[in-house]
Predict the 3D structure of the following.
Amino acid sequence: MPFPSSKKSATAEEKSTGSKDFDGAVSAAVSKSAQAAINVKLTAEQKIEFYRTMLRIRRFEERCIRSYAQERKIGGFLHLYIGQEAVAVGCCSVMQENDQVITAYRDHGHAIAVGMPLNPLMAELYGKVTGCSKGKGGSMHFFDPSRRYWGGHGIVGGQVPLGAGLAFGLKYKGIKGAALTFLGDGAVNQGAVHEAYNLAALWDLPVVFIIENNGYSMGTSQARSSAGDLAKRAEGYNMAWDVCDGHDFYQVREATEKFLALAREKSKPSILEIKTYRYRGHSVSDPDSTYRDKAEIEEYRRTKDPIQLFQNTLVAEHVLNDALIEKIDTEAKEEAENSAAFAEASPYPTVEDISKDVYWEEDNPSQKKSQGRIFFD
Amino acid sequence: MPLISYREAINQALAEELERDPNVVLMGEEVAQFNGAYKVTEGLLARFGAKRVIDTPISEAGFIGAGIGASMLGVRPVMELMFWSFYSVAFDQILNNAANVRYMSGGLINVPIVIRGPANGGTNVGATHSHTPEGICAAHPGVKVVCPATAYDAKGLLKSAIRDNDPVFFMENTILYNDKGEVPAEEYLIPLGSADVKRQGTDLTIVAHGRAVINSLKAAELLKAEHDISVEVVDLRSIRPLDEETILASVRKTHRVLLVEENKPFCGVGAQISYIIQSKAFDDLDAPIKRVSAIDAPAIYSKPLEDEQLPNPQRIRNAVLAML
């Protein structure tokens, strides 16, 4: 689907009534968060970079679709982040030097948001040894400890106690920082999630649980999954909570920073529900025909696309113009294309590689203390 | 040499490692204020304080997952399962996250956790509290599994487990907690992956782990006294990594093997040992490999039957006699 570029050309393409309402409705909401302290201090360069990162995620994900469906280079699961870009980029953009982040399996956006280069990501999807996990993880398991990004996890909700643990670790070591722990609307009913909420509140852990609520847990809507509101469950644990609009980049920053500060300064946990939307199915194998109308998806694309909205904002702020928009898009597409070429040209791991990276001791033989046989046949 | 109990040996190992490394932290239900459900952690809260010895709510998936997360940042949690039977409550955290995170990240992360607690039946507490999951856990590449039978082994192995940079599952036994043994006052470590011949013999080899070792030694006494049969008892001590060499050396010496285990027969530890022995020492065997496992049913409650369900010395003795 062609990405609408600047407001001017979009008006020419769109029906006049629609875009007029769209512009009016958006500007009022956006301007409020734009005045928040965390946003007012941003330079034009920083804003452009955030916009660029969101678009790079979009173009990377679109290239993944082609690699998966047409070229058949990617196998297994592929859970696309298209439509949710403002959440990962917005939340990660307010991380400070000791903050940690962990998420579930819709993790490409977070990986790119923390700064992982695209080549190893695409190579990982292709199962190549040059992948960020040496081909051993795949789409759901991008990790980068050097960027304080702890994955990439496949079991719904399984990462949430880990996130509480990252917060525990920071607090134990006396490090002032917070753990951003992402989960989806489908994860909120897992027992392990409630256990993590309780531990965080009981022990005052500096964790921000971020519920990326895209409305659907695979094919099951929120209404059919969850009794009551999602973030509001925090009240049962005496935790702070809030809800914000994930299509509004500035709002995501403002809401996230508020709770990150609560975690860093007061070591108190919180739950932030961010309303967002995915245009594609749960994964590429989801025909996306049984649980929602095409019309609903179209409405979101047309009126709530986070990248389009932020583009509109930056054009209004005179930070972006048509030429720059074009340039950023061309570069993003090229970068995604190059990552596919890199992945294609890279070698696979060897059979010997299968047994590596299982045990720290085996991978560090000079420091090995154990004896005996660790692998069997 | 001091004579201390298995319980005391574990307590000493925990205290020494807490003292040695500020990153070590104990977590579990009733480990702090209650001094441990089985008094294994007695006195540690008083000595090290609430930051190092932490009571958790009943929340295995939560606190074990949190421990795994913290270990990714360099904390070294030693987490207690009050009963190893509760591993299934935290199965996803233990055998998906702890076991796999290193691999799925291509080696970028390691998880230096210890999970310890009693893994045993024989205490009249019924099927849900009597699990011995060493085989099930050891079936997952990425984890290490240790089952000490004596106070000496417990202390040396636990210290090694805590210093190990991989996840180590340490399986104790409530019935062994009071057993006394000689334990040096000076510091010592026992490396993972080393078995121990607990009794030298010539006629037949018993390979066992955990309390089955103690029962096998009792059976060996009976066999010597009543039938003048000389049984060698090999204590595995470590399930994964596994000391294959010691097992095979004994097989080559006696030519007959009886595997004794408290776990159930199907795909138990003995099944794996049996494969290795027939694969590597086939020509050294004078008879098929036999085993005495728990009788294949959930752990029965009724006491006399529970004693019969487990590999008691009489069942072991009878199995040896049938092989000779």
